Structure prediction request, 306 residues.
Amino acid sequence: MRVRGYSLKTEKSYIHWIKRFIYFNNKQHPKDLGVHEVRCFLSSLANDHHVAINTQKCALNALAFLYNKVLEQPLGNIGFTHAKQGRRLPCVLTANEVKNILDQMNSRDHLIFSLLYGSGLRISECLRLRIQDLNLNSSSLTVRCSKGNKDRVTILSQKLAESINHFCEQAIKIQRIDNDKGLGPSLPMALGRKYPNAFRQTGWMYLFPSIGYCYHPNTGELCRHHLHDSVPRKALQKAVNLSNVRGKRVNCHTFRHSFATHLLQAGRDIRTVQELLGHNDVSTTQIYTHVIGQHFAGTLSPFDLL
Prediction:
């Protein structure tokens, strides 16, 4: 998986499902199993554990990778068809609800969720931001190695300039303390070997560094990673409880949904929104036209013309 550039989360997910498959078959080696066992395992997930359709698809992808790429025993047509996922409309906040939630947060969490809403970021993309990814002069930020291992450039609100500069200064202070100890931020791939002093350059410092140190999962070196995603998630739930937002299931991704929906409501064309979100296919972005009840900007009910 690392040779093919898969993300660490994909590694963990695939290994989890392969382990589940092995335990399901009483710890037999997968090379001694085949299509029948795979089909029984996937059926058990649906019938006995009632997992979601996408969870079942993830398990199937993990086992397909195991047999096709690792064991080189292609499964071929396993004769298994999972149910299709119906269209689910995402939860979207109004502008006032976004403001009410942000007002309940401290300065760090306020900036994190302002970036999610103001730039349409995923929570992992936001926490991975480094100082060099932010460009206040052009009001843009660069998202690197996002979903699908792609880079993209999206918009950045000038209203956040003061807060961003403050946290950049805070991050640089932390980096200098770490550098005195011979430590620094975690670096992607083998960059640390190619540029031994890269950890001393301010551009590579995370905008939201973690509180403590950890060991790099690939190199084993002691370093400072970015803030764990559980921290803003907990802060969000606390803020939602304190705000007057009721009847909506709010999570980190809700702010990205709100970003896209509000842009379309403001009359921005769907291709622009697609590029800002980093969607491969415009059909993925079209889900937000159903949220606002208008398949094209300005479409009105015929009853409004009576």
